[in-house]
Specification:
The chain is built from three helices and seven strands. It has 175 residues and is of the alpha+beta class. The chain has a seven-stranded mixed beta sheet, covered by helices on one side.
């Protein structure tokens, strides 16, 4: 069943889902359609949509994980972010070091217009598209948000300097 021009209920794993989940999936498909347009109409491959029993956003049909064939997830985020209203989405989480996908969710409560990047297993930091992405393993000021894919990575001086610069700015603002 088509939810939008390019996304189906089956693609978002919503066949047989409860009515409330289907409503969320309809909104999610509309958001994905918007993001697809902002990416020049290039197809998005949904790798995970509704996950029955998941206590987080996927369990309510409010989030999808995706890849863009031929495009790095950071480059994708950098391309769509300037035109994406912070009120249009909840979180965009970029996984550049492990599974190389992008998580996108509907806005809900405090989670509006948040850009995050995975920097460790279940560890995420806020990120501003267009700025350097912290390297995997650089979690100096990160906060765990739940389980993420397991992988080992090496910290980089560039990522550490980026995080330290953010900490210095925060200290300056709070003093």
């Amino acid at each position: 069943m088509n939810l939008t021009t390019h996304f189906t209920l089956e693609e978002l794993n919503g066949a047989g889902a409860p009515a409330a989940v289907r409503t969320n999936l309809q909104s999610l498909a509309t958001l994905l359609e918007l993001v697809r347009g902002l990416n020049g109409g290039q197809p998005l491959v949904v790798t995970s949509g509704y996950r029955p029993g998941d206590p987080r956003q996927h369990g309510s049909g409010s989030a999808a994980d995706m890849r863009v064939p031929g495009r790095d997830p950071v480059a994708f985020a950098n391309r769509v972010a300037p035109s994406l209203s912070p009120n249009a989405f909840g979180q965009m989480i970029v996984y550049p070091w492990t599974t190389r996908h992008v998580h996108l969710s509907l806005p809900n409560g405090a989670a509006r217009g948040q850009y995050l990047v995975e920097t460790g297993k279940g560890v995420y930091v806020r990120w501003t598209p267009g700025t350097p992405v912290p390297r995997y393993g650089t979690a100096a000021n990160a906060a765990p948000l739940g389980d993420g894919p397991a992988n080992e990575g090496a910290a980089s001086l560039e990522g550490l300097l980026y995080l330290l610069g953010g900490a210095a700015l925060l200290f300056y603002v709070l003093r």
